[in-house]
Amino acid sequence: MAEPIKVLIVDDHQVVRRGLRTFLEVQDDIEVVGEAADGAEGVARTEELKPDVVLMDVKMPGMDGIDALRRLRELDLPARVLIVTSFTEQRTVIPALRAGAAGYVYKDVDPDALAGAIRSVHAGHILLQPEVAGVLLSQEESNSGQGRGSSLTEREREVLGLIADGRSNREIARALVLSEKTVKTHVSNILMKLDLADRTQAALFAVRHGLTR
User: Fold this and answer.
1) Tens digit of pLDDT for each residue in 14-63?
2) 20 to 30 A Cα–Cα from 71, which one of 32, 36, 63, 78?
3) C-alpha pair distances (Å), 137 with each of 72, 193, 201, 211
4) Contact 129, 165 (CB under 8 A)
């Protein structure tokens, strides 16, 4: 039997944390390993508990969710972050995705859909609401410049296509019969050549410019 997905809940409202924990604890394949009441505590608990997925609120006192995401990226922690927010404004959600979130859902999400979202981001997929994906794609188009995709090698294009499919480095390595270290190098080169910050932006670039598999 596979190990359960370890989840950390980061939200400043105790009632929200309790509600999320109550639902998730009845899922056979999900284990809540801890809670945090703000971004700083969330970063510290992520370092300590090493969860697979972090459920992160955006608006919190002290260090908010976006600053916490940036800090997690600086620390190069492998946890995937799923934003769980009541804020639907694009000016709130898009910076979180830019900061490295694997996706987001609203706090009124159906419980089964939340469990599915956790499983999806844990599997390496990017979870975007259609309206936010559209804005990101529009921004990517306006910032793309001429010929950025042409700077990629054929192998880098293959890797980019698999990133757009939501594949992890391990899955890409298996698909292309490469080592994970080689795939990681290809991913770094792709981000550098395309002047992108993360895999989310790379996946959106691939979709917008017809570089998917």
Assistant:
1) 999 999 999 998 999 999 999 999 999 999 999 999 999 999 999 899 99
2) 32
3) 25, 18, 9, 14
4) no
pLDDT value at position 138?
56
Q: In whole angstroms, give the CA distance from residue 98 to residue 153.
A: 25
Cβ-Cβ contacts under 8 Å for 147 (sequence gap 6 or more): none
66-83 per-position pLDDT tens digit: 999 999 988 988 899 999
Q: How many CB atoms lie within 10 A of CB 73?
A: 14
pTM above 0.70, yes or no: no
pLDDT > 50? residue 145: no
Distance between CA atoms of residues 95 and 213, nearest Å = 28
Q: How confident is the model at residue 212 (pLDDT cuts 50, 70, 90)?
A: low
Q: How far apart are CA 42 and CA 36, in angstroms?
A: 5
List of residues 6+ apart from 186 with CB closer than 8 A: 155, 156, 159, 178
3 state DSSP class of 211: coil
The answer to whether 10 and 57 have CB atoms below 8 angstroms apart is yes
Identify whether the C-beta of residue 35 lies closer than 8 Å to the C-beta of residue 18. no
**CA neighbours within 13 Å on the CB side: how many for 42?**
34
Tokens of 29: 């394949």
